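Deliverable D2.4 — example input (structure tokens):
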């Protein structure tokens, strides 16, 4: 089954995915389609696999390490106070990790809830913009390179 994750990884390989931040050992770091939480990013495995459980021990360690390195980079370059990590795969049944910076400036009750607690219309209101987001993506990429 070809998922959105498969298509995004293929575009990253071909150099046609404008959201690519960096290539890492386990896959691709990409900025999210929506930016209601500035810096929201994903780790897409390459090759695409169905779930974390499909990886061997070393593959799991590498994927989770790369996910944490992305979180470290986001803490460095944004004003986030913490990072939320999610591995779901329910809508797109392929492994991918959502990495959400969280900010003290977020309104209650959202600040202490899941990112999905924001209204759908708000979550979709700030979409990826290559021109606006390129400096942030470069800063994240630089912070990641210092950690590899």
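Example output (designed residues):
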């Amino acid at each position: 089954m070809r998922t959105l994750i498969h298509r995004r990884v293929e575009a990253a390989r071909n150099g046609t995915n404008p959201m690519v931040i960096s290539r890492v050992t386990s896959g691709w770091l990409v900025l999210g389609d929506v930016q209601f939480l500035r810096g929201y990013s994903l780790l897409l495995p390459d090759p695409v696999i169905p779930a974390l459980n499909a990886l061997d021990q070393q593959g799991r360690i590498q994927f989770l390490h790369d996910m944490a390195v992305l979180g470290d980079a986001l803490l460095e370059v944004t004003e986030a106070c913490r990072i939320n990590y999610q591995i779901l795969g329910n809508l797109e049944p392929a492994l991918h990790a959502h990495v959400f910076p969280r900010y003290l400036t977020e309104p209650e009750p959202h600040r202490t809830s899941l990112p999905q607690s924001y209204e759908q219309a708000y979550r979709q209101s700030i979409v990826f913009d290559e021109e606006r987001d390129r400096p942030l993506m470069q800063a994240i990429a630089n912070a990641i390179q210092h950690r590899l």
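The first helix runs from residue 4 to 14.
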